[in-house]
Records
---
Amino acid sequence: MKYPLCDLKKANNRFAPQLREAATRVIDSGRYIGGAEVELLESDIRLLTSTATAIGVGNGLDALRLALRACILAGRLNEGDGVIVAANTYIASVLAISDAGLKPVLVDPDEETMCLNGEAVRRNLTPEVKVIMPVHLYGRVAWDNEMVQIARQHNLLVIEDVAQAIGAKSPADGLFDSHTAGGLGHIGALSFYPTKNVGALGDAGMVVTNLPDIARIVRALANYGSDHRYHNIYKGFNSRLDPMQAAMLRVKLAHEEELTAERFALAMAYRNTINNPAVKLPLMSSRVTDCVWHQYVIRCRERERLREFLSTRGVETDIHYPTAVHHQPCYSELSHLHLPISDKLAEEILSLPITPGCTSVREAAEIGRIINEFK
Ligand SMILES: *Cc1c(COP(=O)(O)O)cnc(C)c1O
């Protein structure tokens, strides 16, 4: 394979000496659960998102699950309440909603941004809806003034799925004092899965919030529901961000801006090279942080043929995601939904390589020129 989609060994190679040093530090510390590494990472993420509290958890799905369950335990939500989420998201967003006993209200995203927007929220608002879950899909911040207004006007909770968008910023005001994904709404859930923009060398996730009650409950829930030692106020879980991963993540998080700038440069290389009329490019914004380019997702009516063509030319691609959530067998109860934009996207989207350290700007331009040869 000449152009791999995402070669993690290659991507992490530039950090290898520092990662080894950090691993040695953890080995020698004798502290293998919690401790300074986790606390320092939490503090870095708190600063990055301008939020009051950050809580390390086991993975991104747990971050969402614990956030939603905490809202119920805090009396901010009741079981059965509706959560608006775009149907073209990764299924984890929706699994967390069902897991908490809430009702996913799947809606079509905006066709241009491929993300939820305020207008879609307004169109789908019913009295049962109590939560908006913007998923900053592909790294693009799903946030606008209308969403802020609706959330305020109807007293809705905003829980952001930030798994793909660490460091992304919105020009529109958040509900608190942050413009950064995760700090825009009431609670943000981050994932550090190895392929994410800031990826661990294993699983890790984090919850960020400005709500003290939610922070307290998430912290307890992630630790067997315990508020202090051997005293359990909730029927909780064990979901921890381990210090080895925290140490790995602190190395990489220090380079977050540089990695984001590299993703932007790769997106620009595609934008400036691809001119095949059969291919529709994703929206390109001039501000580096409007989209942190977790994926570069093009569209093509003949997607399967293009994908096959690229494969024969050594370009590895993927589809994020080939099946909208309401067509997944586990959500057969939602299969009646008519979501034409989500369906169309699932048929036309194609993700190109965009991992810093794995694909260079020169290679992105080469891939662009190969795409231009597609007839
Ligand atoms: C990766 C991802 C998750 C889940 O994160 P994990 O750490 O893999 O559990 C949730 N939502 C979205 C949009 C994701 O891309």
Note: The first strand starts at residue 53 and ends at 57.
---
Amino acid sequence: MSIRTNIERIRKTIPQGVEYVVVSKYRSIDELQQVYDAGMRIFAESRPAELNAKAGALPGDIQWHFIGHLQTNKLKLVLPHCALIHSVDSERLLRAIEDFCAARDMRVNVLMEVHIASEDSKQGFSIAEAFDFFAARRDEAFPHVAFCGLMGMATNTPDREAVALEFESLHALFARIKACRGDLAAFRELSMGMSQDYDIAIEHGATMVRIGSASFE
Ligand SMILES: *Cc1c(COP(=O)(O)O)cnc(C)c1O
């Protein structure tokens, strides 16, 4: 099937109010142009140099999101082009982003990545760490960072019940943070769900789904 056909098929399954983010990592400029021509404007990359090169080669009205592990020495490749970082996984990284943005008088939108999967390899804050961070108002130490919500990845398993429980745990955390921090005006996004499980994520309150392979294959 063509990229346009895939995208149109997926779009029909995504309700109003949920953002379809096309994960374009490893795909060619030509494939991304086809995604663009199918009407999509939010693309997500996981490698700094790749995001930087693609942002320079494709139309200027694309919103670039970053979803990979971000090393502090790569901020200059990502932050000037990036509408949203989904994958802030440590306070050390937040500190580096804050310093980078303060020096340039800019602000960046981020989601906190929360570890919900049972696999050890996934990065992120624990549920308790993420809640404490906001309950203790530690976000106030980062005035150049806009905290826009949470991101998580479920375990890669065919057990859809297990995946649903993980998404629900992130959704519950999201609701608890919003309830205790009504002052966080931008805190609205819950990024969860990929090609295999985005339907489950939407059932559990996702506001953004990140769909790579199913968009292209
Ligand atoms: C690659 C990736 C995706 C997309 O995965 P697919 O299974 O191809 O849809 C989503 N989120 C993150 C963080 C990724 O690294």
Note: The mean pLDDT is 97.
